[in-house]
Write a structure and sequence with these properties.
Helix content is 46%, strand content 14%. The chain is of the alpha/beta class. Strand 7, helix 11 and strand 8 form a beta-alpha-beta unit.
């Protein structure tokens, strides 16, 4: 699991900015190469809200495995079967939604570890991480390197953030700012005092446990706030925002230049 080792080194390196993206609305395996060419450090395939084709997700995980590029999966829920099936696809880690207690962490542990430490029954393309199927191999290659990022997205999760962050299974703490804002009654007001206070509490919990904190949002702004483990975009939303910006700029340029037309000879080929 060299990809997981690489990401762990970046996450834990003091002051190093680690960036990635999460694919929620659309996904295809070529997005892995796009992320790599963009210089990102990881890609998360989001299965919480949409069920992308399993074979396609497994192919993307295989690309990451071969290229030592970290591919993580966000399963639908912090429940045993969805977690186990997500690992069977072959990612090097999990972003687990709506984790609220140490009981949820134990469920993750059961899904990540084989017996006797857990209850996982490995299968699918995830088996290609190991050269053989002996327990010691699973433990040393997969279990000791797997990335686990539990998301704090509720009041209950916030109350238990310190215990969750301190658990040895947890690689870094994560936060879901939108869902957390909804649970706090300030959906969606990113500057609402209750949300800002909650985010500070989650960050303090991570710091106290000596763990990094994963956060999604405006990358440069988050860096200024001291975050170093950042999700800079959801690609479909980024495309929409860029198209809106380009469309507005194009129409504004027409009004600034009157009705004159310009040649399209300099446009790049599609």
């Amino acid at each position: 699991m060299e990809a997981a080792k690489i990401l762990k080194r970046k996450i834990t390196a003091p002051g190093e900015i680690t960036t990635g993206m999460i694919a929620t609305f659309h996904f295809w395996p070529g997005m892995v190469e796009m992320a790599m060419r963009a210089g990102l450090d990881y890609l998360i395939i989001d299965l919480e809200h949409l069920s992308f084709d399993a074979q396609m997700v497994a192919e993307a995980c295989a690309i990451g495995r071969r290229e030592n590029f970290p591919i993580l999966v966000r399963p639908p829920a912090a429940e045993f079967t969805p977690l186990r099936l997500a690992l069977d696809l072959g990612p090097c880690g999990l972003l687990v939604p709506y984790v609220e207690s140490l009981a949820d962490i134990q469920t993750i542990r059961d899904a990540v570890y084989l017996k006797p430490r857990g209850r996982r029954r490995p299968g699918g393309p995830g088996n290609y991480w190991v050269p053989d199927y002996h327990y010691d191999t699973w433990k040393s290659v997969v279990e000791e390197n797997i990335i686990v990022l539990p998301q704090i997205e509720s009041r209950k999760g916030l109350e238990n953030a310190g215990a969750i962050a301190a658990d040895p299974l947890v690689t870094a703490l994560a936060v879901g700012p939108y869902d957390l804002s909804a649970d706090l009654g300030v959906c969606w007001d990113p500057n609402a005092p209750p949300l800002l206070e909650a985010l500070a509490r989650v960050r303090s919990a991570a710091d106290a446990a000596g763990k990094n904190l994963w956060m999604i949002g405006d990358g440069p702004a988050l860096v200024k706030q001291g975050y170093t483990f950042i999700c800079v975009s959801e690609p479909t939303m980024l495309l929409q925002a860029k198209l809106s910006e380009l469309n507005a700029a194009t129409k504004e340029s027409r009004s600034e230049n009157g009705d004159s037309t310009s040649s399209t000879a300099s446009l790049p080929l599609p």
